[in-house]
Amino acid sequence: MARHLILLAVSATFGVTAHSFFNVRLLTIILIFLCLLYFSVGLSVKALSFHLVIMGMFLGAASFTDHRNKTAYHETESQFIITFTDQPNIDGNSLKGFVTSEKGERLVLRHKITTELEQEKLGQFLRIGLSCPAEGTLQIPDKNRNENSFDYQRYLLRQGTHWIFKADSISFQECKVVGNPILVSIRNLRLKGITYIREHFPEESSGFVTALIFGDQTYIDEGDLNNYQRLGLVHLLAISGLHVSFLTGLLFYFGIRVGITRERMMIAILIFLPVYMLLSGASPSVVRSCLMAMLFFLLLLFKKRISAGAAIGSVYMALLFFRPNMLYDIGFQLSFAVTFSIIMSSSIFLQYPKKTTQLFIVSSICQLAALPILLFHFFEASVLGVFLNVLYVPLYSIILLPFSLISLFIHILLPSLGQPLISLLNYTFILCNEAAEAASPLPLASITFGKPPFIMMLLLVISLLGLYLAWEVSFVKSKIWCGIIIVLLLLQYNLQRFSPFGEVQIIDVGQGDSILITLPFNRGNYLIDTGGQITFPIDTWAKKRKKFNTADDIIIPLLKSKGIHQLDKLILTHPDADHMGSAKELIENFKVGEIIIGGWSEEQYRDMDFVSVARDEKMKMTVLKRGDHWVAGGAPFVVLSPYEKEENKNDSSIVLFTELGGLSWLWTGDMGEEGESELLRTFPQLQSDILKVGHHGSKTSSSTPFIEQLQPKAALISVGKDNGYGHPHRDVIGNLERNGIKVFRTDEDGSIIYKYYKSSGTFRKTLP
């Protein structure tokens, strides 16, 4: 039964997927799957027909869900009555979270807090169930503006959310409590519990205790969370089957010990689990764990038994039928993939008598099961994590989780007795976090593979299934599949080295510049500028927990997605924050071979943070000026400017000329009209097929004589969406269009990519 349910679950997955991604590739995979069922599994034509019916049913469920996922608003509305249905999140001077409108539609709330007093009052006043009048504007969420980046718009749509509500004012004095009193009370109990932990537990451990008990990772230190993610340990901070098993086992044992009958305890647990699901945030891993436990106890109550495989198959199909879009949730994918792998490979690790060996095998199986998902979404995986999980899994499940629960309950009942326990717990978390921080920079902590193409994903999944099936029969036979997986991973790791394609990409970093050049066969990876934000002094209370940074949030994920392991050159055109403001974070978190700055600008860079980091890392720094040049992969790079010290930083920009993919390119940084005039006088024959427009298309650059001499075929403008500078200036756009020049601009097109092979290539935009 378990095997049939799992095969049906695969068919259900194909049905849901077909609604969003029906193409030749998916159809081919479905046909291969049906052939395997017929020839290898031995299913009859009647059974195959049933699988097709299941695919149709789940395709219909996905279509129905999509049909109902419509908005009642038209972007012109300004007055709403919003209800806080999820935990409000006060982050510095911003109030964020999900709310429900009077029409029952879910909205993303964004509200700016103006004073520290208002922040404190909101922290005390806000709770789930409050319904308040509000005024503001509706905004369509952004799509992904860079290649392989997170598509926030699609993510929200799959949750039934179409709008971001930017609230100008919320009438908190007119709020009233609405909604189901039981559900509201449970959710507010969770909110009170999180607040209690934040107020009474030390900062080093409060975020971890909140994550373990209530499933909220919001308050974990950003550095600690990054370390756990790099090491493949972050799953320990998500409530899963371990937590549910521990709590239900503890509750069941306690009830039996005090004299309650087994039947009544089963009923109590069936009541407790839905409540716990809400208390712990109802994430996909929590829902899966609780539903599987509820199914187990419900059948046990009626003297029935079900295998773990049948249970996970049933829960998976039920969730997918009623909420098809859960399939695209990363937590859902990881939770079911890892749990499924543990259940289906139990006969493998039970072959080994030693507990430590079993734990290592389980850790390896889990990491392998998660591998395709991690590579697809995060482009990297941890080898060291396999070994660290052997230590951290029992540490968290046997010590830290129970210790966190006990410390919280004792502190609530007897604060004086609970405080020493909290101190000891805090010290334990500090030791764990320091160990993770020490392991994080190690070579095998995190390996970047890049985003696998479709065929690589397919081969990886097939190889992993082959490994599990062979391992059950014989460890010797599994070695062949291990070898195949290693070869596939080595191929994926070195994919860029084998690629004959080159690429030029204008990265959308908002109001700033960042250009990535990758040469064929990995002969050079160059980044011109890093983008960055101009920062102003801000009060401590208004600072957000995580500060946006173009290097951490845009550039490094993009580099990893493309399988780039090192930047050969980081070229900083000039010392403006919107061009080099994220250089420090980039060289701290990504390998850079050489940093290049413009001549006569050394003094302006001398006291900058990234220079100190580069000096500590003994990183090569080079100063370029007019006449310097190099050749890489057959492509010439020539520096046309600077040629002398300039009073205007913009005119001291590095100007670079190169030839790539059959086109000539001119990168001008923020050079203005004076610099352009000097360039024309010095190089009267200068022409370029592609011009990176200077200074984000401001009126002070891209003069008519400059454009007329260059005669470019296309102009690239790196500019922030809805920027406050009025860039690009309408006169510049008009001048370019009058000269018949094709204009690409990141505010409208997202990142702009030119992919080429030898001497020909094509442009494409990220946004449609």
Automatic annotation (TrEMBL):
Its main location: membrane. It is found in: Cell membrane. One of its GO terms (biological process) is establishment of competence for transformation. Signal peptide: none annotated. It comes from the Bacteria. Residues 511-721 form the Metallo-beta-lactamase domain. The chain crosses the membrane at residues 30-60, 233-254, 266-299, 330-352, 359-379, 391-414, 421-442, 454-471, 478-495. The keyword Ribosomal protein does not apply. InterPro entries: ComA-like_MBL, ComEC_N, Competence_ComEC/Rec2, Competence_DNA_uptake, DUF4131, Metallo-B-lactamas, RibonucZ/Hydroxyglut_hydro. Keywords: Cell membrane, Membrane, Transmembrane, Transmembrane helix. GO terms for cellular component: plasma membrane. It is a multi-pass membrane protein. The keyword Phosphoprotein does not apply. This is DNA internalization-related competence protein ComEC/Rec2. It comes from Peribacillus simplex.
